[in-house]
Amino acid sequence: MSNLSNEEIEIQFEELIEALNAMDIEKWSSFYSDNMLSAIAGTDFFDSKTNFVDAISKNFEARSNQNIESQTKSINTIDSNLALLTSQNKVKFTLKDNTTFDGKHIFSLIWKKEDDGWKIIVSHESWSSE
Predict the structure, then answer these.
(1) Rounded to 5 degrees, what are φ and ψ at 69?
(2) What does each C-alpha distance from 115 to 12, 34, 118, 128 come to in angstroms?
(3) Once rounded to an integer, what is the mean pLDDT over residues 11-19?
(4) Which listed site, 30, 39, 43, 73, has its alpha carbon 20 to 30 Å from 52?
(5) Is 130 helix (H, G, I), strand (E, B) or coil?
(6) pLDDT at position 2 over 70
(7) Please, are residues 64 and 94 in contact by the beta-carbon 8 Å criterion?
(8) Residue 105's domain is classified under what CATH number?
(9) Strands of 100-114's sheet, edge to edge?
(10) What confidence score (pLDDT) does residue 4 get?
(11) Residue 114, domain extent
């Protein structure tokens, strides 16, 4: 994969983080392929984009704010149309009941080059308090 492809994925990932921080479900979900294979968030498994988006929408609705700050990331070639992005991030959020969370957030995302750009087809997210 060329450096240009890595740069495209890195830009997409930065925009994904911006959408998460804005809790913009429409923008956030646009980074995921309509043909998404699977997503894992914590211990929850989703076999469709619709189910995943519905669950994340509920998470956003329960929060008054959130901030994810990328600390490290790596993009690795699988083939010319697939790449794996892994990242470690700091995350802070406050629920509407004023409960706070401050911890670590990890992404493993497989991106596929589709007709309308790079899209996530497999997503795994984990987090822990620090």
Answers:
(1) -120, 120
(2) 15, 12, 8, 36
(3) 96
(4) 73
(5) coil
(6) no
(7) yes
(8) 3.10.450.50
(9) 44-46, 38-41, 117-129, 100-114, 82-95, 63-79
(10) 64
(11) 3-129
